[in-house]
Amino acid sequence: MASPSEGGNRLRHLRPTGLLYSAYEKRLLNEIDRARLPRHVAVLADGNRRWARANAPGEDIVAGYRAGAAKLKEFATWCDDLGLQVVTLWVLSTDNLDRSEEEEVLPLLDIIVGLVRDLARHPGWAVQVVGALDLLPAATAEALDAAARSTAGRTGMHLNVAVSYGGRHELRDAFRSLLAEEAARGATLAELAETLEMDQIESHLYTAGQPDPDLIIRTSGEQRLSGFLMWQSAHSEFYFHEALWPDFRRVDFLRALRAFSQRERRFGR
After folding, report:
1. Of 35, 48, 186, 239, which is most buried with the most CB atoms under 10 A?
2. Which domains can be identified in the chain, with CATH numbers?
3. Which residues are known catalytic residues?
């Protein structure tokens, strides 16, 4: 005889809403052209603060970040299940660091460190933290770096976690690195100005060596990129969704992939 908990689980599975949801997921999967899946998906996980205000009014705003981190782990699993190669998760911008109060930022940084450590525990995922980590407390930057280094050599899905990330900061850091490299080999600024090519700049981006994002998703109804992957997104497809990030569902993701697979990509031509 089934235990009460087993019986309850079976009843929940048999409810019409559960059956309909499962059937709809399968239909969406069948409608996605697997040959046209993106290699690289990036997501602006927006709406955690608004979710907290609406769903946890008696709790600190950090409750929204915890719910958002849990959804990010789910999202990474969805991507891996579909065989995607590269995923970028933007979890904290440089603007967030400037605008937020310290009593909000410090707990958020703890949540982000926990998130990166949890992602790094997956045996197949290679985790890379991208961003201006010098703007973070030293202990936070060291913890993030240690978690990412623990995944070195893995050949499964590559996960970029954008922490203290800003598109302008990335370009600044890329040019600083490029100039330092050229100076070390004895090149003058005049020589560099004469010979500089785009692939030289690309080789100094945080995501050097990775394919550019094919699809960028932003939640919470905002329809802007806010400087996210400014260089890399030149030919990306964008998908904006109304859901606050913790409410973003697998069917919402599958709809985004279906829309992407049905678009004719022109790459600026």
Report:
1. 48
2. 39-262 (3.40.1180.10)
3. 46, 96
